[in-house]
Write a structure and sequence with these properties.
It contains six helices and five strands. With 152 residues, the chain is of the alpha+beta class. β4 and β5 form a beta hairpin.
């Protein structure tokens, strides 16, 4: 059951060790922010913001496309990046971008192979030429993905 307590001259509604300010004075409190009591090393007790730390992303597990999107968000879309961190939707977003890029490349590769002259016949007769053309195709697809999906 909640009770009203006074801490440092301010009134709080205390419910199961969570302190909710009676009068909302700052943006944190106006947006529903609460506090919890922490005991410091010297024995003093202080109220600290009751916040969950945002989920951190292990960048070593990200694909090339995901890393590029993450850097684009950090450097060019900082508000979107901060919102995704706060709402814990960043990894979901990066996975969605990866899936969109893979789907695009899968569809477009088939279309572009013909225009690049990549045929089974070429593959059998001149594999070196085929491999070079395929590498060019892959690089072109990646450039399109970066421009049309990652940096949008």
């Amino acid at each position: 059951m909640a009770e009203i307590v006074t801490v440092a001259g301010e009134k709080y509604q205390k419910d199961m060790e969570i302190y909710t300010p009676v009068e909302k004075e700052n943006l944190f409190e106006k947006m529903g922010g609460t506090y919890k009591m922490e005991t410091m090393d010297d024995g003093n007790q202080v109220l600290v913001m009751n916040m969950k730390m945002p989920q951190m992303i292990d960048e070593t597990t990200l694909t090339r496309i995901q890393k590029a999107r993450l850097n684009y968000l950090k450097e060019g879309k900082e508000m979107d990046y901060q919102m995704m961190i706060t709402e814990e939707t960043l990894m979901e977003h990066l996975e969605m971008i990866q899936e969109e890029a893979e789907d695009f490349m899968e569809i477009e590769e088939v279309k572009m192979m013909k225009s690049f002259g990549l045929t089974e016949s070429l593959k059998k007769t001149d594999f070196e030429k085929y491999a070079k053309l395929k590498k060019n195709l892959d690089m072109e697809l990646m450039n399109i993905v970066m421009k049309e999906i990652v940096y949008q």
